[in-house]
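We now fix the convention by which a protein and its fold are recorded. These numbers are not coordinates but entries in a learned vocabulary of local backbone shapes. A record is reproduced here so that you can trace the correspondence yourselves:
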Amino acid sequence: MKRANADSRPTLKNIPDATLPAARNALRPAAPHHGWAALTRAELRVAHLVAEGLTNRAVAAQLSVSPHTVDSHLRNIFAKLGISSRVALVRLAVLADLAA
């Protein structure tokens, strides 16, 4: 009986480059798509600062990013939390005890 070569087993090293991102994602647990748990660290920082009452420009200055980046994070936050305004974000943040 022939012994299997260790190099023939599927690992990330011998998966073609084109399929590598999909293979890596298959190894990770699925992330939630909605709710606070779905937010990235950057989105959580933006949500926290907005909940404290900062404007997009003030958030951008505090995080050393552009106001456009803050706006993009807010759109993602709104979509993930199922809301459509900063007021709704502040309400949810208070309920979740996110605001300082």
Notes: DSSP finds five helices and no strands in the chain.
